[in-house]
Design brief:
heterodimer, A: alpha/beta, TIM Barrel, 9-stranded parallel beta sheet, 9 helices, globular, B: mainly beta, 5-stranded antiparallel beta sheet, 4-stranded antiparallel beta sheet, 1 helix
Chain lengths: 291, 147
């Protein structure tokens, strides 16, 4: 592969953006081709969604994966997976069971070339606080995570905001344990003052709140829901999320990592609309970054 | 390719026993959720055709996923197999005589658990049509013809 990723924030794509088309027959290669068009070199896949034969990793998929990454100069940037604590109707997943699922994901992620994992924990309330024994689960999974050289990143996502106690708890855990197996993924939606479509609540963080967290942030989700034309050097803006300010903070503070584009707006199943909005968003990020 | 509707037109047909008598019917369902589902995550509810109800625990309904046939009770225990987001499940219903030629209103109540979402958002009650997280209704339905 000729591509060498630069230090600093980098443009990526989460295949989540293609969900509505993927379930109708769009392939990983279709998405990779478009990423290549847009100069996007980092990818996030969702384990449960985009790996043929999951929870097994087949030789066929492994070969296809490496071939596609090579052909389209794509770097495995983030592997999305879940602890499905309520997968049974009448009881919660035990710690041992959770670790069994996690280890299987670590193994697959490592074989596919991923280091960062977006690890979704089981939540217990409307502000998405994790199960009370989350430390126990992460502790128990840590030896396997280190063995497979992966880092578990809970995603900080609205209605959670950066000021919430949960975030401080995660930071304290990392400081106290000195762990290399746990960090943060920040979804840019936390900077959106758009009222929650379900509850009508407005809840968001200012971009500056990111600065003290940056040493713990290993990956970001470049969430967007609505692109609008902009009569300035950016050409497009996200209607609600202050991309130029957020990306400037990442750059000025020497943050190094991937920003996975995650489209969560309308018409996700309309291929023409989707392609255009993905391009608009990449233009915005490219103009913020200068590359 | 799959159809955009959740209930697929392709795959809707009567099924026959070894004597050639119609023993029931089946149809295919796709999931519009963005991730594959562990079978134990699926909340499989009743099938309703032209107002006639076939309850999940009646022994009349099975789901075929990746070539294996499960009762809803078996699915609820199956935590290692997954229903991929880009494959259909076939819903098979026993009904002696099958469905008559003409239009039928086919509906299925179902849902899934999403452990990363607030627990109250995944309450599933298949006794009535109601709001369901991420797909507006807990009921997939379609009016289709049987030849």
């Amino acid at each position: 592969m000729n591509y060498v990723p630069p230090k600093g924030p980098k443009r990526g794509m989460s295949i989540y953006s293609y969900s509505d088309l993927f379930s109708l027959g769009l392939t990983l290669e279709d998405a990779f081709k478009e990423m290549y068009d847009m100069g996007v070199h980092g990818v996030e896949i969702l384990a449960n969604s985009h790996i043929d034969g999951y929870p097994e990793l087949t030789d066929e998929f492994l070969e296809k994966w490496h071939t596609l990454c090579e052909k389209y100069e794509i770097i495995p940037a983030e592997y999305g997976h879940w602890i499905d604590g309520r997968m049974w109707k009448d009881r919660m997943l035990t710690v041992d069971e959770a670790v069994e699922y996690l280890e299987n994901d670590f193994k697959i992620a490592h074989a596919l070339g991923f280091h960062c994992l977006r690890t979704k924990q089981t939540v217990i309330n409307g502000t998405l606080d994790p199960v009370e024994n989350w430390r126990e689960i992460i502790d128990a999974a840590t030896p396997a995570a280190l063995k497979y050289d992966v880092v578990m990143l809970p995603e900080i996502h609205l209605p959670t905001v950066l000021e919430q106690k949960m975030v401080q708890d995660f930071v304290e855990y990392i400081d106290k344990t000195g762990t290399k197996a746990f960090g943060l993924n920040i979804d840019f939606g936390v900077f959106s003052p758009q009222p929650n479509p379900r509850t009508g609540l407005v809840r968001y963080s200012k971009p500056e709140a990111l600065i003290p967290l940056l040493p713990y942030v290993k990956c970001c989700h470049a969430k967007f829901t609505s692109m609008v034309p902009s009569d300035d050097e950016y050409m497009f803006r996200e209607e609600w999320i202050p991309y130029p300010e957020v990306i400037k903070i990442l750059k000025d503070n020497g943050w190094d990592g991937w920003m996975m584009a995650e489209y969560e707006g309308k018409n996700r199943g309309d291929e023409a609309y989707l392609s255009e909005v993905l391009h608009e968003h990449q233009i915005l990020m490219k103009n913020c970054l200068g590359y | 390719m799959l159809e955009r509707e959740e209930i697929q037109y392709r795959g809707f047909r009567n099924i026959y026993d070894e004597n050639g008598s119609a023993a029931g019917f089946e149809f295919c369902l796709r999931s519009t959720y963005y991730r594959g589902l562990w079978l134990s995550q699926i909340r499989a509810g009743r099938v309703i055709v032209d107002g006639e109800e076939f309850l999940a625990d009646s022994g009349l309904v099975t789901w075929i996923i990746r070539g294996k046939e499960y009762t809803p009770a078996e699915m609820a225990e199956e935590n290692k197999e997954m229903w991929p987001m880009n494959e259909v499940a076939t819903i098979r219903v026993k009904k002696p005589g099958g469905l008559s030629q003409g239009f039928h209103d086919v509906a299925l109540r179902w849902g899934w658990s999403s452990s990363y979402m607030p627990p109250e958002m995944e309450n599933f009650d298949d006794s009535k049509e109601s709001f369901a997280m991420m797909r507006k209704s807990n009921t997939s339905k379609r009016r289709m013809l049987i030849v």
